[in-house]
Amino acid sequence: MMFGEDRRLRTGERPTLAILTTWLFVSLILIAVASARILENQYPDPDDALRLVQVRDLIAGQGWYDLHQYRMTPPDGTLMHWSRLVDLPIAGLILFFSLFMEMALAERVTMVIMPLIVLLLTMLVIGRLAWRLFDRQHAIYACAALVLLPFVAIQFQPMRIDHHGWQILCVAVALWAISWRKAAQGGAMAGFVMAAGLMISLETIFLSAGFAAILLWRWLQDTKQRWWLVSYLQALALGLVLLFAATRGLPDLAAHCDAISPPHLGFFLIVALGAGFLAVPPTLPRLPILLGLGATGAIGLGFIGWSAPQCLAPPFSNLDPLVRDYWYLNVTEGRPVWFRPFSESFPAIVQSLLAIGLSLMLAARSRDWARNWWFEYAFILLVAFLSGVMTFRSMAFAGALSAIPMGWLISRLFKRWRAYESLWSKLLLALGMYMVFLPAAPIIIYKQITVDKSKAQPVTVKLSECELRESAKLLNRFEPATLFAPLDIGSALLLHTHHGVVASAHHRAEQAMRDVIDAYTDPPERARLTIERYEADYLVACMDLAEPRMFKAGGGPDGLMSQLSKGNHPDWLEPVDIGAPESLKVWRVIRD
Asked: Does residue 483 lie within any of the structural domains?
């Protein structure tokens, strides 16, 4: 089969209704799978809980440009690095539903619907692109494959309101845009949506560079194609400036390295201006183009080095060593793939590499524009895959981009399956399809069979016997206070109580995170000094979670957490029974 026909000019067939039907079917499945969590108002990740806290504060009147979380490390609060671009649609949907239902129910409905809306937008983009390349049936298969691929479905599940789904959408739109016929419009759209992705989080930085590399290759192949890269870089720079002004503005011009800030804006503006100057001559040899763009990039990096040299270092390289050991090294989704369990990393690697191979095969079997397109597709997939290798949660980008070649594979396998007459042949092919889309299933089954039930297994917040969602509300009988709690439950306490916390598992409160770790691992009298410095009123801990176990191991038998776990509390702490499960412990701090 050849793939040279330009289906972008096709009329009379539209994939929209088929995509909407697929989305509705998939959404019903996702809601059914998440039904228990929806009924229990349980969030997949602490980031989702803290996101809702931020949105609540915005609705309650906190300033648009004020990104502080004032109940974290009170009274000054902690300046968060999250973007209002994600807060705005959540707040708007909550306010809309609150017009005809209670606020609590409006929040719940929004938490279910918001991720599915982002999934619909992503499916419309992926499905339409698959339709352009193949046909309507392939569009359906690509949309179905989207939620079968690694780390993608969990980013669109109900209650998942953090930023990852939005970034997947930005990458999908950029991919779609570079398939357009006109360079100015396509490059500008790709640049602007990637600017939005970068404003949401810097996790898309490698893919932003990957799209630029593809458009540079077009320029080197044909000088008439130079406006793809120029319009992309200029829209990227201009979009960053406009979105920065709209969401951060003058109140925060500090040189932050974990979010877009003035040093980054300077870099992108310099690169965009350099590319524009190089595109002025109608023809230019390849070597001067490469040298010119290289020099422009070096000047941009020099600007960052001059204005914020610390931002040239790898992320988290300057993190406090204790915070790094107790927190960062245990957040394995933000680390390279080899730190994840094999049962999780294996399907992501296998499926991404398979999608890259399929893209290369489609390139070899295509002609004209389609041949070049599939080589470009394989390249951006490779960039996404390498990004995921270095930061595992970025495998979601590779998964989303894999949907179209994997959808094509589904179509081919189904055709082969229908052609077989033998039942055994059909069963073997069905088993092969199962292994392609769920390759980790045998590994997971083996682990379940061979796991040693006698050994204590790590417990997550949502599986804790503390039943934190309901138990935390029992703390609201006290006047608003500051809670000194382990990092992992900080977000849940902020969400379900009116109290503040010293820190949560978010790196902007680095010093407070260090002090929480210090206090729980120090001897009681030294810990008292740290706790009183924050004027904390209560200590709260879920004793069955992994974090208290780490504190006990790190502080030894004389550490505060070890003593508390044995029931030995110092005389400056008074146990408080709030009627919660036994694993949730609360102590009142007694001050002289």
From this structure: yes
DSSP state of 502: S
User: What CATH number is given to the structural domain containing 519?
Assistant: 3.40.50
Q: Has residue 581 been placed in a domain?
A: yes
Tell me if 479 is assigned to some domain. Answer: yes
Percent of the chain with pLDDT over 90: 58
The structure tokens listed for 35 are 């039904």
- Residue 516's domain comprises 461-589
Across 148-175, b (16+ Cβ under 10 Å) vs e yields bbbbbbbbbbbbbbbbbbbbbbbbbbbb
Per-residue pLDDT tens digits for 573-589: 999 998 888 889 999 99
Find tokens 């040899």 and name the residue. Answer: 285
* Alpha carbons 434 and 426: distance in angstroms, whole number: 12
435 within a domain of the structure (yes/no): no
- Residue 465 banded pLDDT, cuts 50, 70, 90: confident
From residue 269, give the alpha-carbon distance in Å to each of 214, 235, 272, 355, 427: 20, 10, 5, 34, 57
Note the pLDDT tens digit of each residue in 365-418: 988 888 999 999 999 999 999 999 998 888 999 999 999 999 898 888 877 777
Residue 330: which of 521, 547, 41 has the closest Cα?
547
Tell me whether strands 573-575 and 78-79 are parallel, antiparallel or unpaired.
unpaired
Q: Look at residues 347, 398, 405 and name the one whose alpha carbon lies nearest to residue 375.
A: 405
The sign one gets for the Cα dihedral 76, 81, 85, 88 is: negative
For residues 2 and 256, what is the distance between their CA atoms, to the nearest angstrom?
Answer: 50
| Count of domains forming the chain | 1
